[in-house]
Amino acid sequence: MNRKTDSIYDEVLDFIGHPVEERFNTLALRVFSFQFERNPSYRRYCEAKDQTPDTVLSWREIPAVPTAAFKELDLVCDRPEKVFFTSGTSQGPTKRGRHPVPRLDIFRASVLPNFMAHLLPDLAELRMLILAGSPVLWPHSSLAHMMEVVRKEYGGSDSVYFMTDAGLDLEGLSRSLREVCEQNRPVMLAGVTLAFHQFLDHCRERRMAFRLPPGSRIMDTGGFKGRKIDLLKTELYRRYEKALGIPQTHIVNEYGMTEMSSQFYDNVLADHLNGLSRPRHKRVPPWVRTRVVDPETLEERPPGSTGMLRHYDLANCGSVMALQTEDLGHTIGDGFEITGRAMGSEARGCSLLVEEILRTR
Amino acid sequence: MTDPITLDGFFLPPPIKVSTYTQLEFGPVQIRLPVLTATTLSDVINQLLAAQEQYLSKQPTMAVLEMIDAAVARWLKPEDPMREIAELVLPNITGLSPAMIRFGLTLILKGYRKDSLYRILRHELGDAHLLDEFQPKKENPNCLTRAVGPRITTNIIAGNIPGLGITDLIATLVTKSACVCKVSSHEPFSPALFAQTLVQIEPRLAYCLAVLGWSGGRPEAKSLEEVAFDRSELVTATGSDEAVTAVRQAAAQSQPVSGRFIGYGHRVSLGLIGREALDNLENVAQAAALDVAMYDQQGCLSPHLFYVETGGDHFPRQFAKALAEELKRLEHELPRGILDTPTAARLHQIRSVAEIKQADGEEVIVFGSESGTLWTVIYEDDPAFVLSPLYRTVRVKPIDELTHVIPLLEPWRPYLQAAGIAVSEPRRVLLAETLARAGLNRICPVGRMQQPHPGWPQDGRRFIADRVRWVDLETS
Fold it and tell me: Where in the sequence is the domain holding A110, given as residue range(s)?
């Protein structure tokens, strides 16, 4: 890496640490120029669209790369320190997407404050019970990497992963939850929605329910496959509440993807602790912008109308910042909500990974 | 059309009445469907059986064909009020453009005139009067034979192509069977409108029909399906594999073992262009574009991709470019319909992935409508057979010899329907033999993929013959 490279990465690091709204556009354009220069496939894509650093004046005009392109091309500006893969098997009918990350410190820098702001706004020190695989079990998963970053920083020494190569350790998790109730020490349950599902089914079969100590919370991610999300979510959160005694204000859904370094979290816990009452939606961290665009005209959709979600993530400075996702949603207040997926999109995300594990048990 | 309007998507024989309805909304159009109980449906079926016994079973086949012909003739007249309603309402229901509805309805129905139906009967049964009376059996002087249709048939129809469900009604009536027709929530209108047309021609024939709806898979649908399937000698279902499988299972539980089931599930089609056909590049591209554009590629006969042979005077990529130009031209003549956001997003995504592969220097060239996702041609040298996301999105792939597609088709064998081919005459039969063995049911010229000959073997089946049973009269 030469000095120029380091300088742009360091500028992004600095921005994430001290975000200044007015500086976003300038920095985004600098990152765009950098990626245009360093990534030949991306450059030619931009040139074909006639959107180059010479013509693009606002971050809104930066050409977005479809996330599915990560299956086809190496979209990276430098030698990667780590490559994350989307779930799925390499022999399967669908190719796996790969996200090369040249600097994991930027990834980490974007994970921590955002997680803190939405899961730990009260600065609680919580034991983490993780319903996902560790980086040892899921070496290519960006979710596993993220969880580990969070666990190391905030989780305490008695935090545990409950996903094993034999599947979810249901007995171990039940035991830990009983302990938690006895000790009356609040806890954070974090993991993939499908694993939560499996645990809730397990509880129902055994007529088991917990009343976790007040202040306990849940972070779940993925797993709705885009169909009737609202309905499923309401139903699922009711089940969380019933089986674990965690109120909806303390159930925070995370939305992330392998191709993107930053994550989005629900506003509910932060709002609750700030005495605000707003509908559940995803908040956008200061180093990210999200647009909702019409798939036909590519114009921005009016607030509340459904369109494709397009993210601009400065933390993706080493790969591609502007991402066209297959997710559909609409804006709500200062954020957005996901309402579905582009029709026919292949099942993807962490859920598939877990499904495979559940299936092979 | 902007004023809201409510229309009936059902047709029930008198004196059956229902008091509760449900409505399906399609923009300004609302389609009303009855909420049925098992008892009401049972009454409907009693009524249909009586009408079939007293009227339809006694009509000569030619009389039935005449009545169907009269109804079809009305739908083929642009100024006919029934046709006008169909043209006005179906764009709202299906999202297809008005021009496409106009063109498509004519294309479908013109194959069901009296003469065509007569020829189908002659071809499939050997004698059009076998549905009327015993006829001498060929090769056996001591035996007579005849065909008898089901007393009642239940047709579960799909909604992907507007008007196509009408052909199920026609096939059922030709066999002199009464008909319970369950419409699709995607196009719950044209079958009832056709029944209304029949009322004006011969009410006694129309009263052998019931057109209604229920949501398959829902608990309340189960009791209705039980009643319908239990009393139907034949159940046919058209739709997605999941839908057809569900009906098949329900029918297997309710029908007597002797009952018949015919299922038409997912099917895919493709085009094959021989190197010699590229000499007429413009013509063959024009023909291919029509196949892609028709019904916005929603039909089982719509091509997902074209394999184009190398080694001729033109390159396959030139065909891709010419195809793109023709699709652009059709944008005005037969505009594409309106898409929902998830579908448009999918098309956008697929096009942009191809664009970035092209930028990366892969053998991919994207031709697309300038604005939106109106049409997309993706030329790529990866020979794999991949499904299109449809709505006028088509891939063009070079191949050094057309017969080399056979191994590529193997994984899709259970789903193959039609191949549109453009090759010189000496090659045609040989290629067709190969394709027939590969699983295809219909091979036709490019440009004719959406205009099958009446009675074409959909899913490899016969239109009428598969619906009847045979009775022998042995004289000694």
Answer: 105-287+344-360
